[in-house]
Write a structure and sequence with these properties.
The complex is a heterodimer. By secondary structure, chain A is mainly alpha-helical. Chain A is built from 13 helices and one strand, in the order H-H-H-E-H-H-H-H-H-H-H-H-H-H. Helix content of chain B is 13%, strand content 41%. Chain B contains five helices and 30 strands. In chain B, strands 1-29-28-27-26 form a five-stranded antiparallel beta sheet. In chain B, strands 3-2-4-5-6 form a five-stranded mixed beta sheet, covered by helices on one side. In chain B, a hairpin with a 5-residue loop joins strand 20 and strand 21. The longest helix of chain B has 18 residues. At the A-B interface, helix 1, helix 2, helix 3, strand 1 and helix 5 of A face strand 17 of B.
Chain lengths: 288, 444
């Protein structure tokens, strides 16, 4: 752009854009003084006006100061110089108004944009929320598993659905063995699985079921170790209340009743809403 | 690692300069790779071509191709001194030699002089891991188009491997200003290869030249010249050098830009008191006024479908980018971040905008995704302006300042590859990257 280069050659690039006005005014001046060249060429080239002008008609047309808009004579019969100054004042006010309209337009544009964005974001958030609620509804929350009965097949599969395929398979296999009362094979399978996936999604579950299996085989010390792994390594896991309750049971079997009571009380205090808490209450009352 | 690559590239550039005619080299732009960006660059070996004694004084074709590919940022060409063998035909290729180097692709070739003086090049591209030939081709062109052959080879290899059409055969025009601001000011409209080599002057004037832009067929360039003492728009025929001064109007005549079909020219006129965007039909020279606002409307460019114009306007108090649909005159604002956004160009996909964006008072080149509104600043230098896109949309060239001097610089659309093209002769500014052209057959 012309104004850009001029702006830079006078060493003020920052004002380049503002220099549009400066330059256009200067150029108009030049051409007016050099005469008719511009207007002659002007006449030689037909100009077709743009079609949609509805938006524009409502706005006052800008006229350069060199060609003042004829105004109606002043009502009070004032002399010409006074009219000129009034015209100057009008022109000045027009410029101020134009600037203000431009600023307001900018504000409206920005606010419209922000409003559209907000509406869009809100819609997005709603869709996202809706999707998540739907997902929750389909995968109903896993109920706390009762320790007296093994969870149903479907539950184990649902829980396993998000783990990596091979880990899920290993878990389901070990679980199925336990369900079919092939306890020894199941112990081996869970142990193997913990070795293969030490940081797997189902490792805490595997520890828990190992504890249960050892308990069934009356290997209380091994059972204690397995349940302790769940409680110590995965303190936020959903199996923790059950593991705590089982630790209470294990310590009772190991003959340490005070430790046993400690764990049973902890389940009741920390997880009062769980079924493990109910079982712990019963067990504790029997113990005493 | 990266700096080693950079040095190697510089070394190659130096070699190129030595090989080329010295007089040309002094005028041409140097290319210095600043940042070759990608972490995972494709390893490629371009074996020096067999060039007989009749090629004395011409660049080694493999050097030109290697430098082209290195400049894209996506390739790491293997330095010839690392190569274990220098095959020029397929039976001399032992893939094991190249696997050891970790090279993924291999280019070999040989050049011959024809009886009529033309030069021909046969080359082959191999996939080293799969030990298979991907391409074999022969190109012939007059002797003065030697570098065009090299760039054409680069284009084909680049496209074969990346799937993106290469733009190495393209040209650029720019304004070279000597002694600007003094009584001895001279302005040259320069034409150069996309690597800055082989620059030549299209037109010289004592008055400013600006805003060059290419016609979509690459045959003409429109620009603004002050040669008559007032700004006027010139259509310059590249093949013949013929210049046509369009009828000019009171005030500004600026920012000419061809429509995608080449039949119209968008431009800015201030004949009604302030700058407005117009479209001129180049067949019957009729003008149609597009914008009508007491604010400034300027710097038009076309959407790829030719149905709308993008332009800069301060109708909202500050310069921002707007789009006007030509059929309906419906105007929509496109940029909302920052107080100053100007000189916009759309990428060939029509979805991404490149423009000058002011952040913390400093002008940078920025990229914006129109669908998602992401804005990304691509350049870190101050005073960046006049971005112009490569026709394949992967890179853009822009003008910036280095130690108070105007230079050209190139950045990839993702901002990761950067190189600069300083000139030893003066200030360079207002670059315009050409569309795809058939460089082997063009007359310029």
């Amino acid at each position: 752009m012309a104004q850009r280069l001029v702006g830079r050659s006078i060493g003020d690039k920052g004002a380049a854009f503002a220099a549009h006005f400066f330059l256009s005014a200067a150029l108009v001046g030049t051409v007016l003084s050099t005469g008719f060249i511009g207007s002659r060429v002007f006449a030689a080239v037909p100009v077709e006006e743009s079609v949609a002008e509805g938006e524009i008609e409502a706005r006052p047309r800008f006229q350069s100061q060199a060609q003042p808009v004829p105004t109606s004579p002043p009502q009070n019969g004032a002399v010409q110089p006074a009219g000129d100054s009034r015209l100057g004042e009008l022109f000045y006010q027009l410029q101020i108004l134009q600037q203000e309209v431009q600023d307001l337009r900018g504000l409206v544009e920005e606010q419209t944009y922000q409003l559209n964005r907000l509406a869009r974001d809100q819609k997005q958030q709603y869709i996202d929320l809706d999707r998540r609620v739907a997902a929750l509804r389909n995968n109903a929350p896993t109920p706390v598993i009762s320790t007296s009965t093994l969870p149903t097949d479907s539950l184990a599969r649902a829980a396993a659905s998000t783990a990596s395929g091979s880990e899920r398979n290993a878990y389901t296999n070990a679980f199925d063995m336990m369900k079919n009362r092939r306890f020894d094979e199941s112990v081996d399978a869970f142990t193997q699985m913990i070795g293969d996936y030490p940081n797997g999604q189902y490792t805490p579950n595997a520890f828990y079921w190992l504890g249960e299996l050892y308990l069934a085989r009356t290997e209380s010390e091994k059972a204690r170790q397995s349940f302790a792994q769940v409680v110590n390594l995965y303190p936020d896991h959903q199996k923790v209340p059950d593991a705590l309750y089982k630790l209470g049971v294990v310590y009772h079997r190991l003959g340490d009743d005070s430790r046993s009571l400690e764990y049973l009380n902890r389940v009741q205090a920390d997880y009062p809403e769980t079924s493990a808490a109910g079982l712990a209450t019963t067990y504790a009352s029997e113990l005493q | 690692m990266r700096s080693a690559v950079r040095n190697a590239v510089r070394f190659v550039a130096g070699l190129l300069c030595l090989a080329a005619v010295p007089a040309l080299c002094a005028e041409s732009l140097d290319t210095i790779i600043i940042d070759a960006g990608y972490d995972k660059q494709t390893r490629i070996a371009i074996v020096p071509f067999r060039q007989g004694p009749e090629f004395l004084g011409l660049a080694q074709l493999a050097d030109v191709v290697g430098f082209d590919l290195a400049r894209s940022g996506q390739f790491a060409p293997e330095p010839p001194e690392n190569m274990l063998s220098y095959p020029t035909v397929q039976r001399e290729v032992f893939f094991r030699d190249w696997r050891i180097l970790g090279v993924e692709y291999l280019v070999i070739g040989r050049a011959n002089a024809e009886y009529n003086g033309d030069l021909s090049v046969s080359y082959e591209l191999f996939d080293v891991y799969n030990e298979r030939q991907m391409l074999e081709e022969r190109m012939t062109a007059p002797r003065h188009k030697w570098r065009d052959i090299a760039h054409a080879v680069s284009d084909v290899v680049f496209e074969k491997i990346t799937g993106i059409r290469g733009a190495f055969s393209t040209r650029m025009v720019y304004v070279l200003a000597e002694n600007a601001g003094t009584d001895y000011a001279r302005y040259r409209l320069e034409l150069a290869d996309s690597d800055g080599e082989r620059s030549r002057t299209l037109f010289t004037s004592n008055e400013p030249l600006m805003s060059p832009s290419w016609s979509p067929d690459g045959r003409r360039v429109a620009y603004v010249s002050f040669e008559t003492g007032r700004p006027g728009i010139v259509l310059h025929d590249m093949a013949t050098g013929a210049r046509e001064l369009l009828p000019n109007f009171v005030g500004i005549n600026g920012s000419p830009i061809f429509s995608p079909n080449g039949q119209n020219l968008a431009l800015v006129l201030s004949r009604d008191g302030n700058p407005e965007v117009y479209v001129m039909n180049l067949t019957d020279r009729r003008l149609r006024r597009i914008t009508r606002h007491h604010g400034i409307d300027t710097e038009p460019s076309w959407t790829p479908d030719g149905g709308s114009l993008i332009f800069t306007s301060d109708r909202g108090g500050r310069p921002q980018i707007y789009q006007v649909e030509l059929a309906t005159n419906f105007i929509e604002r496109l940029t909302f971040q920052g107080p100053y956004n100007t000189r916009a160009r759309l990428l060939p996909d029509g979805q991404h905008l490149i423009f000058v964006h002011r952040r913390d008072g400093v002008d940078h080149i920025a990229w914006q995704d129109l669908e998602r509104d992401d804005l990304r600043v691509l350049t870190a230098t101050p005073l960046d302006e006049s971005p112009s896109l490569a026709p394949n949309g992967t890179m853009l060239i822009y003008a910036t300042q280095d130690q108070g001097k105007g230079i050209l610089a190139v950045v990839s659309i993702d901002g990761r590859v950067k190189y600069r093209l300083p000139s030893s002769s003066g200030d360079v500014r207002e670059p315009a990257w050409s569309p795809f052209i058939d460089a082997l057959r063009s007359n310029f």
